[in-house]
Design goal:
This protein is an all-alpha fold. The chain is 77% helix and 0% strand. It contains ten helices and no strands. It has helices spanning 2-5, 8-17, 20-37, 42-50, 72-83, 86-94, 98-111, 120-128, 131-135, 139-213.
């Protein structure tokens, strides 16, 4: 399978046949698969090569395909189906060794100009208006993100409503609280008055007794 994907003539023919939106999906799927593999960067590999450091893995055990025995139409159909399905593409790439994956990445990136991609301005507009996710088969993911944002917004609104209710409850209890405090203040004032009156009576009685004794 590896030598099939590295065959420039076969792959070029398939890439050139993709319609603009198919080409965009193919690029999206290739980027998805290569990113999922978490390959070392080209810069790192170049620095390793300068020092004579090679990737230590062996070639994959995948069987080589004799391209001369395969009908060109069947071959193109197989490659077309493969590159339009990102999960199949990733599964295929995952079966290769690390060095093969690195070589395949460089090879596919060199063939990208053969894809008839739609204008970048159109792609950006489709992305802004949420159409791109649907066309790329990411509608479920986009919907999940939107649902999560909606849920967070609803929780925030519910929290604000609870805060308002709590404030209203405190305000509704305020008059009763004030009435209770006023009642307590009046009782204290009456007690103070009573205490003063009692003291005055005691003093007057004492003065009268002193006069009688004198």
């Amino acid at each position: 399978m590896y030598n099939l994907l590295m065959d420039k003539a076969s792959l070029s023919q398939v890439f050139l046949a993709f319609a603009p939106m198919e080409a965009l999906k193919v690029k999206h799927n290739i980027d998805y698969a290569l990113e999922a593999l978490s390959l070392p960067s080209a810069e790192l590999l170049a620095e390793m090569q300068v020092l004579g450091i090679d990737l230590p893995d062996k070639p994959s055990a995948s069987k080589k395909v004799d391209l001369t025995t395969i009908n060109s139409t069947v071959l193109s159909s197989h490659l077309t189906e493969l590159f339009l399905d990102k999960h199949k593409l990733l599964k295929t790439f995952s079966d290769f060794s690390l060095s093969e994956q690195v070589e395949l990445r460089a090879f596919l990136q060199s063939l990208m100009p053969m894809l008839h991609l739609p204008p970048q301005a159109l792609v950006e507009k489709m992305q802004r208006e949420g159409v791109l996710d649907v066309l790329m088969g990411e509608s479920d993911k986009a919907k999940a993100v939107k649902d999560k944002i909606a849920a967070l917004s609803q929780n925030k609104r519910d929290h604000k409503v609870d805060e308002v209710k709590e404030r209203l409850a405190k305000l509704s209890n305020k008059p009763q609280q004030c009435a209770d405090e006023l009642k307590i203040a009046r009782v204290k004032a009456n007690l103070n008055k009573a205490s003063v009156s009692d003291n005055a009576a005691i003093i007057a009685d004492a003065k009268q007794k002193i006069v009688q004794l004198g």
